[in-house]
């Protein structure tokens, strides 16, 4: 019998189903509300944490008097530079012309008077740009953030620094009004040509007080803030004028000036104060000073403002005689390959004492030496070519028991599609490791890395201080095919390991930093190095690299009467059939000095590349070391045990020893024969004398002397 439609059991089941659906609905609502509450709580907690972190920021330094110049000393303790020729002179906001404030905000921070220290739109734009670029290439800093960076932080482009900027900017905005922030900002920034602060900038460029600046002059100074050395109108008038007009167009776009004012100002020629009447004494050794500033920030956390105007005393490893010698060498046009008319062939070089890591001299480029310009000695990132062979291939091989006399076959090879070839396309059959390195054959180096393993080459390179990426994990590492590249400073520090018997000491300009009141802020004296290879490996590599200079690709670097080891390097320019190069290197060392030289165009293209061999860099290196070592003691490398390498006459060490022994034996035999012959001749003379005496006695008996005189006296008469 079927139950009726009013059966209570059926109703109960339906009510049960409705109740279950209702519970599920309320469960989802509860979950949603929980998520909302958690988000709100997280935002609230984040805001509270943010407020706490802002409150913890110390900005009291902004109330301190504007600081004094920092003094630099060389390695002998002699003062060589004051980083600012005069103290910064403050100008009150009321003395700043409105056109100047408008120009600065137009180009640097158009929402300055609206935001509270950070511009979310600008930060978002910078975040998107950096994300798509795969690195930090653009900032979104407001004027307040720039002030925080200049006074409290370093200039590195990292998210950590950006976060600290935000915290400090927020604290600054809460403690100072906008006019005061603008005043502090303009009084502390660098405008180029040695001018720190707006007062010196107005005097330096236009011989005016700040309140007398015109619209085009204000736009010019505002345009300099982003890159003062690259845009200075004294050296780059065209670029400076273009930048000025860009500022004027931004002011027009933002409604700060009229179209008529923009047209008149943009047509006005740039009128500058006579440079001879204004410029303070030129800063000595600008590239070296630049490296000191970078090192102070990277190693010791000092801001650029602290270094330049903190009243510090910075003791450096600078050897002024070597630095001046290097600058004189780089002033000789004939040492360098001829350049294209529109671009100068550039170069960077560094000299380091491998015994203590001190940077004795540093050259960041040819031509004009702008303060805080691009420093090719330390900032350059280029492929090192064959200068990587000793580090990535030969050193790990020697560590695994290979000897310079071991052989490899130089022949066409194919490693899964990678087909290295030698310069010129020739092959040389069976060659020793020594011969392959001396003549810089590519195929044997790649074969050697393949035998010891890419990981071994990677690990060795990193020990030597060469920063690598995952993209470098390939056999091309043996030939210096790096993704990011190296600087001359990187290579000098690396080769210093060989010169220093296997111990690596980080290269540095700074020895000690003292505050204005004498507190030691940094001290590297006595810092221990790190042993990264065995001394015998270092000595064997040195013996092999001496061969490069004595009879191989580095002969142009040879120094008369000094032991020198080194390696050439060249990177090929695609599309030139092997006749062109992008980079030209020589890295070499004596027992007391390591040098690295790079030559090339800043921007390499089909019209701008090198057509010279690695002899170009070697020739510059030779001139550099010859001048730098003038008057320095002649030192010898420690001898390498059991190294059997060929000399210039084709003999190995062992062959030469045997030859020397044979010569000694021959000389000894000849001397012995001569002595015997001499003895025989003396015996003959003695016999003749004896016979003569006997005959004399017989004559005396037959004819006795008269008057009592002896025969000798008689003969003498």
TrEMBL record:
EC number of this enzyme: 2.4.-.-
Domain called Glycosyl transferase family: residue spans: 77-251
Transmembrane segments: 30-50
UniProt GO MF annotations: glycosyltransferase activity
Chain intervals with Basic residues compositional bias: 11-21
Keyword Transferase annotated: yes
Catalytic activity: Preferential cleavage: (Ac)2-L-Lys-D-Ala-|-D-Ala. Also transpeptidation of peptidyl-alanyl moieties that are N-acyl substituents of D-alanine; [GlcNAc-(1->4)-Mur2Ac(oyl-L-Ala-gamma-D-Glu-L-Lys-D-Ala-D-Ala)](n)-di-trans,octa-cis-undecaprenyl diphosphate + beta-D-GlcNAc-(1->4)-Mur2Ac(oyl-L-Ala-gamma-D-Glu-L-Lys-D-Ala-D-Ala)-di-trans,octa-cis-undecaprenyl diphosphate = [GlcNAc-(1->4)-Mur2Ac(oyl-L-Ala-gamma-D-Glu-L-Lys-D-Ala-D-Ala)](n+1)-di-trans,octa-cis-undecaprenyl diphosphate + di-trans,octa-cis-undecaprenyl diphosphate + H(+)
Keyword Kinase in record: no
Swiss-Prot/TrEMBL keywords: Carboxypeptidase, Cell membrane, Cell shape, Cell wall biogenesis/degradation, Glycosyltransferase, Hydrolase, Membrane, Multifunctional enzyme, Peptidoglycan synthesis, Protease, Transferase, Transmembrane, Transmembrane helix
Residues covered by the Penicillin-binding protein transpeptidase domain: 348-625
InterPro entries (UniProt xref): Beta-lactam/transpept-like, Glyco_trans_51, Glycosyltr_51/Transpeptidase, Lysozyme-like_dom_sf, PBP_transglycosylase, PCN-bd_Tpept
Compositional bias annotation for Basic and acidic residues: 650-703
Enzyme class: transferase
Stretch list, region Disordered: 1-21, 650-717
Protein name: Transglycosylase domain-containing protein
Organism listed in the record: Paenibacillus mendelii
Lineage of producing organism: Bacteria, Bacillati, Bacillota, Bacilli, Bacillales
